[in-house]
Amino acid sequence: MVYVEMRNPEENYPFDHWWVIATSEELGQGQLLPRKVLGMDVVLFRQDDGTAAALVDRCSHRGLPLSMGALEGNRITCGYHGFQFDPTGTLVAVPTQPNCPRKGSVRAFPVVDKAPYIWIWTGDPALANADDVPVYPWLREPGWAWATERIHVAANYMLLKENVLDLTHFPFAHKSTLGAIDSYANYSPPPVLGDDRVCYRNEFLNQPLSPVYNDDLGLGDRLTDRVDEGVSVSPAVHIAKVSIRIKEPRPGEKAEYAFMFHHMTTPETPRSHHYWWAMARDYAVNDKAAAYFKSIAHVAFAEDKVILEAIQKRNDEAGPGANLQEVSVVADRAGLMARRQLQALLDAEDRRRAGGTV
Amino acid sequence: MVYVEMRNPEENYPFDHWWVIATSEELGQGQLLPRKVLGMDVVLFRQDDGTAAALVDRCSHRGLPLSMGALEGNRITCGYHGFQFDPTGTLVAVPTQPNCPRKGSVRAFPVVDKAPYIWIWTGDPALANADDVPVYPWLREPGWAWATERIHVAANYMLLKENVLDLTHFPFAHKSTLGAIDSYANYSPPPVLGDDRVCYRNEFLNQPLSPVYNDDLGLGDRLTDRVDEGVSVSPAVHIAKVSIRIKEPRPGEKAEYAFMFHHMTTPETPRSHHYWWAMARDYAVNDKAAAYFKSIAHVAFAEDKVILEAIQKRNDEAGPGANLQEVSVVADRAGLMARRQLQALLDAEDRRRAGGTV
Amino acid sequence: MVYVEMRNPEENYPFDHWWVIATSEELGQGQLLPRKVLGMDVVLFRQDDGTAAALVDRCSHRGLPLSMGALEGNRITCGYHGFQFDPTGTLVAVPTQPNCPRKGSVRAFPVVDKAPYIWIWTGDPALANADDVPVYPWLREPGWAWATERIHVAANYMLLKENVLDLTHFPFAHKSTLGAIDSYANYSPPPVLGDDRVCYRNEFLNQPLSPVYNDDLGLGDRLTDRVDEGVSVSPAVHIAKVSIRIKEPRPGEKAEYAFMFHHMTTPETPRSHHYWWAMARDYAVNDKAAAYFKSIAHVAFAEDKVILEAIQKRNDEAGPGANLQEVSVVADRAGLMARRQLQALLDAEDRRRAGGTV
């Protein structure tokens, strides 16, 4: 069964891929949660045993979104004529007749719930391997404080990925927030390639720690070495780590600390995406941490959202055929590599489909 | 004169047809009423003697909607340069010169006012026969209580016609209203063909009467035979009749009662339509009847509107080329027949035009 | 360097042309003013010495509107990564590296600030001659009272130009305002051609002066000869003059007065334009004049806006291929001539580009 047809040239995302579709927390028992990903309307729900399931959000009969129906046990009942579907998408009941037409089944998507995220495989189910879904200890295990939230961004997801691969925008886009803390603009960050992933690395050596990290660590003016590293793990995941080392630790004092950032991106359409940020730290693990993370995110990531949406809007107004000016500099190296890696992924997927191996 | 050019494939409605365009009541004397039907902007008004008239709602000079002008006697004066048109669409005055250009006339539509509706013929005027405009005694004559109202539905009109041809949606779409009253879902209604019209027929025999009909009839738990029949008379008209017969009438008691439903549909665009519902009954003919009909309609038909608009929205998002899944069951038989009958009407109209007989 | 590619058939405006883009007053020192003209996003600002400058409002790096950045001295700093541009559009600083890519410059537009308007040349800079930018004494010199304002009109600019070339719409479009004052509708204004410009001329001889002009002149019922003349100077400029002469002036009384109107039109897109009206008079030069001009404009020009936008909306709904009915009469002669003159301008521009002389 071929699930995906010829790629729309605007769809710059691989379908044979795991993507975050929701947080584990936001999908309650008994709920029908509609969400569009990669241009497809999906309805998410939990089975009786809590296992997450995902179907195309469109009844096979007359097309009503299934999310407008009712969930009873493991079955979705359509809100129009009562057709019932099980978690595999199989049409299991038509109220007006004893039998169900075979062609009445709807597409089901592989989903995996590994807290704090529910992941969906949007391509050929035969290629889906739940073991490939990543788990991040710092978002689950004791010893870490963390928070995550979704932001809807009306811009292609690659605009965000390139944004987080080049932090030299801090002093300008985040002038009064993140930008106030560091002289990122003086960096020409060399991408470091490891495991075919696109990275950047910025060092802030022998300096007082910037307030974002220092506020709850309380080092004052003491000198630290800080290394910021970011990795575009896949089109769906970017992880950044801030490693802090106290230059002259006091006797018995813990000398090394970590602050983790996630930028999880899931295309909604070619012109919009869902963006889950997450932050975690291994110090000051207290009740106030989540609120602190959100206070940073709500200001700084809103600044990015405004910028990316303005760029997308202008591109859209120019139209698909417009040959818009784009000049790149050294600081774009990681972003440009991410584009090339994405293109390689898309080409491989196109070849795989053309070869009939799907 | 050929009024209609090549059919836009989305325009699934016959032009050589009578359609409801307004209620007689809503078109007051002296009023210019704009309404779009079958993709055409029309301005309705009454002549001095009260006769309804309809013109294309666009001045032949520079294109201002005539409905933005003024009605003086039998003439519309355009609100831009004062060109005047009579009820035949003839340009009869240009303020700045003594003569009127011949090509300045605008299209006039045959209209017929047969209360409670004003009907418009949207095709070749030579084919319009006012005798074909139907009159419904139960919406005019003594012995009946009735009401009618327009609802705007942002969905193709055939979605509504199929809706009213398959009442097995009651228990799901109208769970707490109409659906609460009958076990429609247990029916696989056999369409009955009479006079080339698409019908359904549901029987509820030897049962207490459901509250919708019983509330003002007061039969309590007494047993009745009830037959629901619906007929798609044309693309513009669907009529349903509920026939009630008391199983064991008391001496001298009237044993038979009728409740009539109308579903009058007029395409506005390929993606929207005007929908006039009407209800009438030959019992409890009192002042409260109209309010009772509206109380039913405002809840139940709003439920249909939400469903049909959700389906249309998804279809639109998928785009015209999308090959959307649609599986049909036995209960769809009447609806599918209505589609075929419509297609035959459209094909005949296309042949007639191609043959130059228009 | 060729700045403009093949003309989009909807773009019925010459690019090699001076257009009003702002009033001198609205562009403050230190401000970044975004404005779309002829389909192009432009950012306006003043240099240190107050000279106006205009760049394409799109950073050459990643496409953020430059108007979302910051103006420091003579340079715009992009709000994303801090790229800096000087008033010639040259990229003069990239914060992360010492050198600037040559291809990073953005287009600069010739602009001229001749109060009360700032003008932009939207075509080939080599053809721009600042001496061609007009100056209107009655909007600058002592002895005149004047006012000007911008109105955004969601309609093609030629709809407004034709509007002001045919004042026979006054009695209908401005029934209770301008229309109340004169019997324009009785005129079939003969266009007078002078200097290849399209004109009209209406005479109101031996009559009391209409209130619009008389209110502050105080002639009461005394007889005057009044001549209204209008000239479409170019696609960007229409100037009208009302000349008033007292029939029997008293000894020592000034006998002649003038009231000037401007209708400055600048396309924003093919379906919208910026419209600056201006009014001036050489009598009753006092503090109340500007408020009086605005009181007329806010009512009367709003009536035109409603009409032109209704026409544009209907044309848009009909689609680009629609063959909409349009009949013309004698009163349209000036407007039709303006269309032909515009077409000649466009054809000349197209030929010039095709010939490679740009």
From TrEMBL, chains A, B, C:
Rieske domain ranges (all copies): 19-120
InterPro entries membership: Cholesterol_7-desaturase, Rieske_2Fe-2S, Rieske_2Fe-2S_sf, VanA_C_cat
Pfam families: Rieske (PF00355), VanA_C (PF19112)
Keyword Magnesium listed: no
Gene3D superfamilies listed in its UniProt record: Naphthalene 1,2-dioxygenase Alpha Subunit, Chain A, domain 1, Rieske [2Fe-2S] iron-sulphur domain
Keywords per UniProt: 2Fe-2S, Dioxygenase, Iron, Iron-sulfur, Metal-binding, Oxidoreductase
Gene Ontology molecular functions: dioxygenase activity
PANTHER family per the UniProt record, alphabetical: 3-KETOSTEROID-9-ALPHA-MONOOXYGENASE, OXYGENASE COMPONENT, IRON-SULFUR DOMAIN CONTAINING PROTEIN
Protein name stated in the entry: Aromatic ring-hydroxylating dioxygenase subunit alpha
